[in-house]
């Protein structure tokens, strides 16, 4: 009798354990945790947009998704972002496509000097353009959104007012923009943004070429008291997700992510444009940064020197079998459409 009731007790216990396990593994209320890697430090715009995306996703899925964010290259750094996400080291990663000009040749066409006026236009253009061309480079991931920086300008320790001033100066840029500095006669030094604060501090470089929100976010204004306004090119970014992980998500969660894609692009572009204005005002007030405007003739001169970069991109794109002219003409008409 005693033995029998013992057996019943064990059976009930096993059944309960089984029910609990099933509820945890397959239950509707289970929270799905996703890791999201980013390469620069937390106050920078790629991380600000990451936190915004996290909050929106957690709110819109009513807590079913929890996103753990990893800024500052703590999970994946700039160079390993794409491959790290493909390999599943992070579920999601934010990458600057311009850091790998050859790998993302199609989307990097947006970082040619084609007159994108600001980050909002750049982000809308890039997202539409990506959807139309669906480049092969993204076949192994799910793209969650794309966006761009505001156009790049020169931040430097010494004033740069003409081509004589920039000649031979060690300036940092990365990816495609490096060729621009070269074309203007600077000694271009390549590195991702995350390595730039140390290079400036140690005097490895005398300035950098990027969008101006970094004057505040990295406090570059303390060292770089001069800004030469060239408003040249944007840098395109993308946020990618491990494909298997994406496929494992419930349909309604996938819908939330898809709905957010274009919205996130526009939000980030708008945030960036406003933040650049804030950063310039802050730099002037806190560090008396001088903003240098090239006169019209000088500017036309600087711009003319960049045409070979477009010509070279066309040659290389054709070699890779890409419809180079169609890409450029599509991009220009998207820029016109969104600049209105
Ligand atoms: N302009 C690119 C990309 C960039 C602009 N702002 C930030 C902030 C943090 C990381 C990257 C970027 C660059 O110069 O790297």
Task: Kindly summarize this structure in a few lines.
The protein has 13 helices and 11 strands. The protein has helices at 2-26, 45-60, 81-87, 119-133, 163-166, 177-183, 196-201, 214-217, 243-247, 251-287, 296-304, 307-319, 324-339, and strands at residues 32-37, 65-70, 92-96, 141-148, 153-156, 170-173, 187-190, 207-210, 226-229, 236-242, 290-293.
The side-by-side strand order for the widest beta sheet comes to 7-6-8-5-9-11
Number of strands: 11
User: In DSSP terms, counting alpha (H) and pi (I) runs of 4 or more, how many helices?
Assistant: 13
Helix content: 40-55%
Bound molecules: D-tryptophan
> What is the CATH class designation of the largest domain?
Alpha Beta
Principal-axis shape: globular
Distance between the termini: 86 Å
CATH topology description of the largest domain: D-Maltodextrin-Binding Protein, domain 2
Instruction: Provide the succession of SSEs.
Output: HEHEHEHEEHEHEHEHEEHHEHHH
Largest sheet: 6 strands, mixed
Q: Which value, in Å, is the CA radius of gyration?
A: 24 Å
Tell me the structural class: alpha/beta
Low-pLDDT residue intervals, each spanning 5 or more residues: 18-26
How does this structure look, described?
By secondary structure, the protein is an alpha/beta fold. The chain has two domains: 2-102 and 131-149 and 236-275, D-Maltodextrin-Binding Protein, domain 2, CATH 3.40.190; 153-233 and 286-313, Bacterial extracellular solute-binding protein, family 7 (D-Maltodextrin-Binding Protein, domain 2). The protein is 48% helix and 16% strand. The protein is built from 13 helices and eleven strands. Strand 6 (170-173), helix 6 and strand 7 (187-190) form a beta-alpha-beta unit. Helix 4 (119-133) packs antiparallel against helix 10. Residues 18-26 have low confidence and may be disordered. D-tryptophan binds next to helix 2.
